[in-house]
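All the exercises in this workshop are built on plain-text protein records. Sequence and backbone structure share a record, each on its own labelled line. The structure tokens are whole numbers drawn from a learned vocabulary of backbone shapes. The record below serves as our worked example for the rest of this section.
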Amino acid sequence: MSAFSRVDWERLRELREGFLAAQSRVQPAASADYFRSARDVELYDATFARRIEWKWAAALREVELRAREFAPKSVLDWACGTGAAVRALLSSPVGARVERVTLFERSSLAREHARRSLLALRPGLEVRIAKSPADCEAELALSSHVLDELDERAEAELEATLRRCTAAILLESGARATSRRLGRLRARLVGEFDVLAPCTHRGECGALADPEQWCHLFARPPGEVFQDALWSEFSRELEIDLRSLSYSFVALTRAPQPRDATLARILGRPRLLKGRALLDACSAEGLATLTLLQREDRQLFKSLEQPSNEPRVWRFERDGARILSPRPQ
């Protein structure tokens, strides 16, 4: 990041307050275009969009490991913003074969920034602009941090777009209300699609069964972020914990996926206690809070202290609520 002025920091703070307000709405509602100038786009892309890219890197790593043959050639980024989702995709093995990208975005300033950044990352890429939801179609659809900004009509347009695609990856914040809204969208699509990740099953979302639960994960930022003076200033000015990259996502495909009923996905942040950890484990049986004793696997237990971009998909036996012989996959 380059140096920011006091005016820049005030504008970033204003943008963040708008995002948080949208996230806290009780009822779905449309958000106005929050990019007022080219500088807004630059500020957003240098800060908030970078953090979104780090979340996408974690989600795409999971897709890569769970579906090694998944390599789309055409991609739609629905409400693309400044292009964070596609940039992460093009930097991932999942995006190695992408030849064409379609951008759908209400802000012409953000859309043009996204187009330029994608061409800089992959010269020769075909980048087209969709003028309406009806013009949105591709092999893989992406959407990123958009549900909080949609009313019911716009969410229905997004859902209709996803049904015209072969696969979709939807990534949202890790906020409870937003994650549960994503879970309800997953539920409406899962009859038509199979689930790639993070679920190890295609059944009902176990988190939706309990109003206090939600499916969320934590990504790990690049290590150099913590040595960067401007990111430190970003953390202080906006009161954001750089270590906390909470997100929720679902990856869907029409191709039937092999299933292993013995696998569970560890969600959220493990609660580490003396000699034991409490873990939320999601499997075909539902979502359950289980206990892992440190003596079961000291190295695995220690790894729980930090977020990881390697997905915590485990096979284990259970003795009631206790995990026995955990084996990461």
In short: The domain at 263-328 is CATH 2.40.50 (OB fold (Dihydrolipoamide Acetyltransferase, E2P)). The mean pLDDT is 94. The chain has two domains: 6-253, 263-328. Residues 1 and 230 are 7 Å apart (CA to CA).
